[in-house]
Amino acid sequence: MGRFILYSFLIFLLAVNKPFSQPRGENPATEFLTWTLLQAVPSPSFYSDNNGNNSRLQFGLKWNITPLSYSFNTNKRVSAWSFFEVNPLRRHSGSVELFAQPEWTTAGYKYADLKRFSISPGLRFFAPLVEYGEYLSCSLGLKYSVRESKAGDNKDTFGMEFGMYSLFGIAGFNFTYNFSSESRYNFSINIKYY
Amino acid sequence: MRRIYLIIFAVLIFSSCQTFRDVGENIANNFSSPRKVKNKIKDPVKDSVKLSALWIGHATVLLQIYDKVIITDPFLTDNIGVLQKRIVEPGLDLKNLKKCDMILISHSHFDHLNLGSLGMLEDKFPRCDLVFPAGLEEFLPNLDFKLHDLKCADKDKKIYTGETKEINGVKITSVAAYHWAGRYGLDGLIWGYNAYTGFIIQYKDVTVYFSGDTSYDEKFFKYLGENYTIDLELIPIGPCKDCEKLDKKNRHVYPKGSLRILDDTKAKMMIPIHYGTVIELADPNEPKRVLEELIRNREEYKQKVKILKIGEQLIIN
Predict the structure, then answer these.
(1) What are the beta bridge partners of residue A146?
(2) Does residue B312 sit within a domain?
(3) Is residue B3 assigned to a domain?
(4) How many domains does chain B have?
(5) Is A35 part of a structural domain of the chain?
(6) Per-residue confidence of chain B (317 residues) as pLDDT tens digits?
(7) Which of the ends of chain B has fewer CB neighbours closer than 10 A, N or C?
(8) Torsion angles phi and psi, residue A140, rounded to 5
């Protein structure tokens, strides 16, 4: 089931060959390049690493890709739909988005029987709190983490996340609760531009 | 020892870097209240007036042309862009504003497209006309206002006017500006989101020019002078660190540049704006000091340049 969702998601990513929905500026190539580079900037994260007897925090990195977003608060002149590149106002003034979250723990888990890399597709809802979400917004999300044990067994799990964002959504924090005892919690400092 | 050198080095770098100083000052400023404006005008909209202008602060001016009330780049909240807090409160209490027909937005920078202020105006005047350069809608949320976009001028091809629309009898023309747009940094600086404009406002026999943010361009301003009889113009004079210079190319015009614009456009009157409200680059009132110095012994300017205090209203009948 987990692999089916993951592969469907990857096929969907490949199928969308036009990564932007907004009207283009003067430099679409430069925009595409800089935007892509900025998406490569990871969000520093901390993962709980435990096996029931021992526990510690493990540092890792997290990326966020948004193949599809629908904003509830756009004006009539623009589309409510965005693909990959999402204007911060559209995202944080109220939206729902599909996301994919590659995650990588830098030194690997010591106690939890998990591989370093995982990917979590999911659905996230944003609500504005101050100034149409540009000054402060929050998010609630549900995700499905595709993970494997060190031996290659399926360790997929569902998780819930909560986030708070400021500075036009560029900076924030994100807390995840996984419905699995292995690496149940993780916390990340969220960095995202468009 | 090495750590001490590093700390000294960091302090030197940060203290000499204007951006860091600005950020520091603005963060500190968030802990103090904006200075009060005494004797705010309680009846900004008059029953019988040909032209009036009330400077609310920064680039926000309440214009009345006969029965039409227009507000430019409204900034009525305490903050712009999260951290930048105003140092003087708005020169108008919104509760005293009984009418607003039109809002002009020149571009999408935080100090000009202030979403909180639009929300405040929307609550009070939901059917107001909102006029902006085409492309700026990218940065507008869902508002009740009637939206009107104007095509921007193509200044690279020396086409200095973009589009004219008549909205409830008021003729609005987008004209060139020399600035940049976007909202979140790279979108304006690299990606080319270029929705920025100046406005010519014409109603009955009155013409007002609101330049938005602009730097100086002789050909363009002479073009305005040759094609429009401007009764009043609202021209930015800051922010500036080297305020004695003419301008900073494609950024802002400085006091000397504003006087050149006044000469070129042959406007009857000019109100300097875009200073004295937020901390940016230097003392917010430095542009005003330089402008006053420049016009001190120049009678031809003394009659035309109207330096208003925040909250002061100029009435022309």
Answers:
(1) A119
(2) yes
(3) no
(4) 1
(5) no
(6) 666 666 665 655 555 565 666 667 677 777 788 999 999 999 999 999 999 999 999 999 999 999 999 999 999 999 998 889 999 999 999 999 999 999 999 999 999 999 999 999 999 999 999 999 999 999 999 999 999 999 999 998 999 999 999 999 999 999 999 999 999 999 998 888 889 999 999 999 999 999 999 999 999 999 999 999 999 999 999 999 899 999 999 899 999 999 999 999 999 999 999 999 999 878 999 999 999 999 999 999 999 999 999 999 999 98
(7) N
(8) -130, 135
Chain A contacts to B (CB-CB under 8 A): 22-27, 30-31, 34-35, 38, 73-78, 87-89, 93, 131-132, 134-135, 166-168, 170, 193-194
CB atoms within 10 A of CB B292: 14
Give the 3-state secondary structure of residue A162: strand
By Cβ distance, the residue of B116, B184, B194 closest to A168 is B184
H-run or E-run covering A108: none
What crossing angle do the helices spanning B2-16 and B18-29 adopt, rounded to 10°? 80
Candidates B272, B275, B297; CA nearest to B284 is B275
Distance CA B225, CA B236 (A): 18
Residue with the two structure tokens 């015009």: B253
In-domain check, residue B92: yes
**Pair B183, B195: CB distance under 8 Å:** no
DSSP assignment string, B131-180: EEETTGGGG-B--SSEEEEEPPPBGGGTB-EEEEEEETTEEEEEE-----
Q: For position A186, which CATH number holds?
A: 2.40.160
Beta bridge partners of A177: A160, A185
Q: If we measure between CA atoms, which residue out of A98, A144, A99, A146 comes closest to residue A118?
A: A146
| Both tokens assigned to B175 | 């004209």
Q: Which of A25, A132, A168 sits opposite B192 (nearest CB)?
A: A25
Q: How far, CA to CA in Å, does B278 sit from each of B81, B83, B123?
A: 11, 11, 25
Residues of B in contact with A26 (CB under 8 A): 191-192, 194
Max Cα–Cα distance, chain B, nearest Å: 73
CATH code of the domain covering residue B68: 3.60.15.10
- Token readout for A42 is 């990871």
